[in-house]
Design goal:
single chain; alpha+beta; twelve-stranded antiparallel sheet; 8 helices
Length: 380
């Protein structure tokens, strides 16, 4: 078995540290400093797969707690615990992903750091993403506010001549008319470090883009998929836009999960809040799985990339934290893959963290709709 993430108090504490960023603008502006306040607040929204999450957790601990070490701790090396962990970890990740498509509202922030080495040189880049979605109901309209900023912090070799091709900033706003308004960013730069979340802030200047008042997809909930049909659904839509699965992996494929460990996420103040799951993917299996490769290649704009693992480390590992009802609190993806990148052969090694909130104040669209109205006036 490949080397996997250790279950220690120190490692868990380091993983659970939260972070956030703020964006800036000159042409139109919006303050991001006071959003994502409730990442640590348990959601009141119902989760469609809550009962299945609980059943999977119960299944795991029924086995795990029957195999203890001399110190009365779970024996994670026991074969039965290992096999059950693989199955349950995969289910929990799938349920968390499919819960998201059924929510009235949610917001996530993602920060990704990665290194790319290709024949024409190397680059280190930072990507930050913020996605707020309110789905249409009988009581509210559907809205979306979504920005993505990519910044190259270091670049060497011939590829440095194409630096601008690797940097971009884009905001997409969908208003109650189901129309899309896009803003493009320039002068992308690192800003101040957030003391609260411990990450440097990416900034840029926003200006109105080409897609302005064009029809967009409706902000509505996706169809509910029965649990026994999720595996089939993952394969059916792999490689398409707006897929449900996170981490670009067919997590329910046979033997694709190499190791899975679930621990109770406890807090002295709030009692049992949820679970932390450590999951490692067998990249040999993933690279033979058509659905997984479709998702990986679609996400990275490569027609031949595949994960790279070795005897010591998996080419794809996922650590995620869920609330007791199965909704994501946060998740982290570490991966390495090789293939053609912008026409050059090479490898990419990255780590991405996603943080979620479901509260009314974090999902308030007011300031973003005001930003849109300002942009409309500027455009004329």
């Amino acid at each position: 078995m490949k080397k996997f993430i250790g279950i220690t108090a120190v490692a868990a504490s380091a993983f659970l540290s939260a972070c956030f960023i703020a964006g800036c603008a000159e042409s139109v502006s919006v303050e991001h400093g006071d959003i994502m306040l409730d990442n640590d607040v348990a959601p009141t929204l119902e989760a469609s797969y809550a009962q299945y999450t609980q059943a999977a957790v119960d299944e795991y601990f029924a086995v795990a707690e029957s195999h203890l070490t001399e110190d009365n701790e779970i024996d994670y090396e026991n074969p039965e615990v290992i096999e059950t962990g693989k199955d349950v970890a995969a289910k929990l990740f799938a349920y968390a992903c499919y819960n998201e498509r059924q929510l009235d509202q949610y917001v996530f922030f993602a920060t990704q750091e990665g290194d790319t080495d290709i024949s024409a040189g190397s680059a280190t880049a930072l990507k930050q993403e913020y996605y707020l979605r309110i789905n249409e109901t009988d009581k509210t309209c559907g809205y979306r506010y979504h920005y993505t900023i990519k910044y190259v912090s270091k670049i060497e070799g011939t590829i440095s001549m194409f630096r601008d091709a690797f940097e971009s900033a884009r905001t997409r706003i969908t208003d109650k008319t189901d129309l899309l308004y896009r803003l493009e960013g320039s002068n992308i730069h690192l800003g101040e470090k957030s003391e609260l979340f411990g990450v440097e802030i990416l900034g840029c200047n926003w200006e109105t883009g080409s897609d302005w008042g064009e029809p967009d997809i409706r902000m509505v909930k996706a169809d509910y998929i029965e649990p026994e049909k999720i595996a089939e659904d993952i394969e059916a839509v792999a490689g398409e836009e707006n897929i449900t699965m996170r981490a670009n992996i067919n997590i329910l494929a046979e033997d694709i999960v190499e190791s899975g460990i679930i621990i109770k996420d406890e807090s002295e103040e709030n009692g049992l809040e949820g679970y932390i799951v450590f999951l490692s993917v067998d990249t040999d299996v993933a690279n033979r799985d058509p659905a997984s490769l479709k998702m990986l290649r679609k996400a990275n704009g490569s027609d031949n990339c595949e994960w790279v693992g070795d005897n010591e480390t998996s080419g794809l590992s996922i650590v995620f934290r869920i609330w007791k009802n199965g909704l994501f609190r946060m998740y982290s993806v570490s991966e390495k893959w090789k293939g053609k990148i912008s026409g050059f052969s090479g490898t990419a090694d990255s780590s991405t963290q996603y943080y979620y909130s479901y509260s009314d104040r974090d999902c308030d669209m007011t300031k973003y709709l005001e930003m849109l109205e300002e942009a409309k006036k500027n455009k004329g």
